[in-house]
Amino acid sequence: MKSLKKFALGMAVAGLAATAAAAETVKIAYIDPLSGPFAATGTNGLHQYQFAADTLVNERGGVLDGQMFEIVAFDNKISPKESLIQLQVAIDQGIRYVVQGNSSGVANALTDAIAKHNDRNPDDRVLFLNYSAVDPALTNDKCNFWHFRFDAHADMKMDALTDVIAENEDIKKIYVIGQDYSFGKAVASAAVRMLTAKRPDIEIVGNELHPIGNVQDFTPYARKVVSSGADAMITGNWGSDMLGLGKAVIENGFSGPIYTYYAAADGITAAFGETGVGSLKLVAEGGNNPPSKPEAQEYVRAFKEKHPDGNISQSRITNVVQMLAMAIDDAGTATDVVQVANALEGMEFTDSLWSDNPMVMRPDDHQLIQEVHIYGHVPVEAPFDFDNSGYGLKYENSIVNAGADLPTTCEMERP
């Protein structure tokens, strides 16, 4: 009997220790591709999240009473079905914060599943912090209280791109091409709608979608672009699809500007090299290479020391980590995600590494309003280049509070 009492006491002490250890960690599930055709993008994003959590939160004492951020990786293989499996695994592990960004198809599946889970489990709720899935529907008709987007959505970015295109009188014909899923369709729809309004004289000589992640040879698509006589091209392609399409178009003789959403880093910058100069245009948030702020330059140098083959290519990741930390501190809790969400709503964030202009998490639809830029692909010195290639990005145009005047159809129900 005495030994049993000792065993029970030991178990109780162990349980208290485990509870204390759990209280010291705020786990964040990273659900993105770590294998397959988009593994490079997902792996680099994971490294950026881990570095941001360690550098911007943990090394500064964590949140609340010293709780540390821990990024827990889940490979979704870019599949919505696999993402839902990994989401359930994360929830079963007690994780209450989910970050994801690669593929709006995945984001649509996750936001629906999280909303349903939270309705069924009011004491076990989860927040979805979307850092890069930019289907406009996610903060419009499909909005919900549990979803926050930290990237400008596709329509906001297209609004900026088409402003620039409209000012270029040399552009008379445009070819629109993208991946066949919700984001690619949103890009095409916005391009047609906004170009028609801003430059009705521009002829859209092509508008097509291709299978996502399955095209091995983009030469047939490239030949159609070239034969159309287009002066410029618009694509929302990312990862290996951006690389394959862009390289094929240039190699088949296209010499006009290629307006893109994701034509940088993860091997894309290195592959284009000199051929991308004067051709690739990118709409995104963040800083120049090198960034203008000294602290951002030091941040990039430190990341490159830890990940020599990596890139700080998604500056919004640092915004996600910093704003979540601020919200948890403001709410006074990391476990009550309703209070954390309330703290995120309407938050003004002015501590970005990349910009002095304030960002606002719009409470109407949980869409971050921020400054975006049109960049050109240019030579850049190490360590501020991408892919150790000698090339990176430089501002050509900047838009403060991009898309703030675009309406939202969100009708949000709050708990």
TrEMBL record:
UniProt organism field: Aquicoccus porphyridii
Pfam families in the cross-refs: Peripla_BP_6
Signal peptide segment: 1-22
Similarity section: Belongs to the leucine-binding protein family.
UniProt domain Leucine-binding protein: residue ranges: 25-374
UniProt keyword terms in alphabetical order: Amino-acid transport, Signal, Transport
Protein name, as recorded: Branched-chain amino acid ABC transporter substrate-binding protein
Transmembrane spans: none
Entry-linked InterPro entries: BCAA_transport (IPR051010), Leu-bd (IPR028081), Peripla_BP_I (IPR028082)
GO biological process: amino acid transport
